[in-house]
Amino acid sequence: MRAQVRNTTLRDPAEPAAPRATRRRRGSRVRSRLLIGVFLSGVAVLGAGAPMVVSAGNDYKDAQRLAEETAVAERALTLAHTLADERDTLTAAVAAAAVTGSRQPLDSALSPENRARADRKITELRAELPAAARDPLTDLIPLRDAAVAGEAAPEEISAGYTTMISALEGLTRDTTRATPPDAADPTADALPDLIRATDSSAATRGLLLAALVGTGEQLELSRLVHLERAREEAALADFADLAGPSARDAYAEAVGGEESDTAEEYLAGLATGTGFTAADRALDRGDVHDALAARTAAQRAVLGELSTEHTARLAKARDSELMALQIKSGVVLAAFTLVLVVSVQTARSLTRPLAAVRLGSSRVAADPTTQEPVKYAGRNDEFAEVVAAVNALHARALDLHQRALEASRDSGGLRAERDRLLVEQQELGAQLQQLHGAVHGMFADHAERILILVSEQLAVLEGLEEHETDPDQLAVLFSLDHLAARVRRHGENLLLLAGAEPAVQPTEPMPLIDVLRAAVSEIERYEVVETTPPPAVRIMGVAARDLSHLLAELLDNATAFSPAGARVRLTGWCPGAGQVLTLHVEDEGPGLSEQRIAELNARLGDSTTPPAGADLGPGIGMGLYTVARLAARHGLGCWLHARPGGGTVAEVIVPAALVESTPAGYPPVDGTGATPTVTGTQPVPTVTAPTQDAPAPAPAPAAGAAPAVQVPGQRDATTPTPPTPNPQEHTRAADTAAPGTGSWTPETTENGLPVRTRGVTPVGSMPAAESPDLTPNRGTDAEELRRRLGGFQRGARAGHRDAAAEEDGRA
């Protein structure tokens, strides 16, 4: 039976198959790409020249900064000379005031004009000085006031002014060290040494005049004079080593006069460091002052000239860097302009013929039958080849147009025939839909008829069983009864697959044990099923029969794929009232791979799609599809997973809404006590004494099976063992019988796992137990056989009869 007919809509093959083909593409123009290329070319040129221009700009900034710092250092050197003169004057005045005891030398030492001139230079230069040279100038006013007030010694005055002068002169030393290699000059490197020599010369003059004014040997001043003289000589020696020949000659010429010679004689006699004698103090202080002042002035003149040359040299280096920056910038700009012009001209040489080809092609494509061919007057290049190809297509289009006119005269009859076939196709499609619904209706009608006939057959068999006394005949009747129950299950499958609902649905809750008994009674190999006492709960009537049917399908599948002698266990548990019910069906088969279990679980979760193999063979995958339909009908959960010891476990979850507890548990059947409780995790088969209302089944145990559990409270402790069925009882049909026990090699899947085959046990898993004795036992009492076998079948049908009777009563 085909469960579903696929509805395929036919379409015209000439029609686009995907919306992607009909989607309009975004417009793109060659001109835009060419403009982007021109832009990128210009950016590339600018990117290549930018590092060179940036480097030149940085060099120019460094040269400009160095030139400005050199100018500031030159002005700071002038301020240092002013402060040196003020230092020498105040040092001599303080010494003279200390000797005479009068303030007249202090009052006349520093005139307001000299003080204002120094302060004005400091004010003009303070904002441009760095912190290292600006901070010491804050001590000038306090030191000057202390000197004028006579509160400072000559040594203190000289040391304080020397600190400020050294800080100002250090600017020139810093600028000369930062001179770039292209502006380097030996004279520039020697300027700091000449500055030190000039400052020491001025300090020597001031200390020497202060010492000559006083009395005694003046050992401290003599030591300072000797120290400053030694510093001057060392600085002049360094200057001579570093300076170029022109600088040395300029210094020798400036300082080599008569006055300088006289100053050298004074310094040689007075700067000994051993104190001053009376002869030394007898010298004319004015002559000593003039000689030393002239020598210091000559040194400052040379220093100023060399400093000016250094400043001019740095300014020239700055101008050179500016020129280099301008040249490099011009080169980059010229390259950018050249690339831009060439790119634009190249783009125009492409876009103009392209526009002519595009417009001509569009004109011909719009109306190829009336338009003239494309005319092109450009160069004989690729565009000319394209124009030639377009004109060839134009000629071909004219030829095809003529052929199309001729073919259109012959296609009128074909169009009419096509329209007729399309109408016929639509009519056949409508008929197919009607037949599809009719087939399902016929399936549902035949399924209901089969169920009615099976119900009548079961009623007839039940009547025969009640009046039969021959044990063999009674066994045959029970076999027919069992076959009829299986036929009824397959009829219900047919009704389910046809999409119809059962005609009769019980409304009263059914005990779970009756649901399990009904499920076991509807399978072929019910004798291999072991059950444990289920929870004392009841299943709602709307779901009881479908749950029994679902469990029967799982049990039938488990027993069909179990090896000979293996047991199938049916267990269940429920934590309590209002909780979900869990049922397990475990087999001991060869097991399934994880991939196969995942595939089967996916099919169990899909109740709308028929199994993939339904078209390959009759009944392939219908059992799992039936389980999926039944589970989806009531919201049951059902899936498979591997059993730890081998085999497969089918787990069924019944929602709490379909489960209600039995207040007093299961009542004991006639001839027994309370229902036994089995603890532990291993399932134990349950055997109860039969009753007339709800008889329990007592199937014959398989070979090697565990003995039945003795029910507590049983009346007859010596109940005879049920007879072993004969070979004709409860055997499979010829087409599904198990294969022989000879040499056999199991088939394997792609993953190397054994293929589950009905009734076949894989090699290595065949049970070692011997086959049971199939010789019929003719000495068994008929009533005993009826009680042991008939109770199982009648108990399974009790729920169906009660539901039908209740439905008839309401009707």
From TrEMBL:
Q: Which Gene3D superfamilies match?
A: 6.10.340.10, Histidine kinase-like ATPase, C-terminal domain
The HAMP domain, residue ranges:
348-402
Please name the PROSITE patterns in this protein's record. Answer: HAMP, HIS_KIN
Question: Region entry Disordered: which residue ranges?
Answer: 1-26, 664-811
Q: Which residues form the Histidine kinase domain?
A: 547-658
Q: What is its EC number?
A: 2.7.13.3
Localization per record: Membrane
State whether keyword Kinase applies: yes
**GO MF assignments:** protein histidine kinase activity
Per the UniProt entry, what is one GO biological process?
Answer: phosphorelay signal transduction system
Which Pfam families does the record match to this protein? HATPase_c, NIT
Where's it mainly located? membrane
Where in the sequence does UniProt note compositional bias of the Low complexity kind?
667-714
What is the protein's given name?
Answer: histidine kinase
Organism from which the protein derives: Streptomyces harbinensis
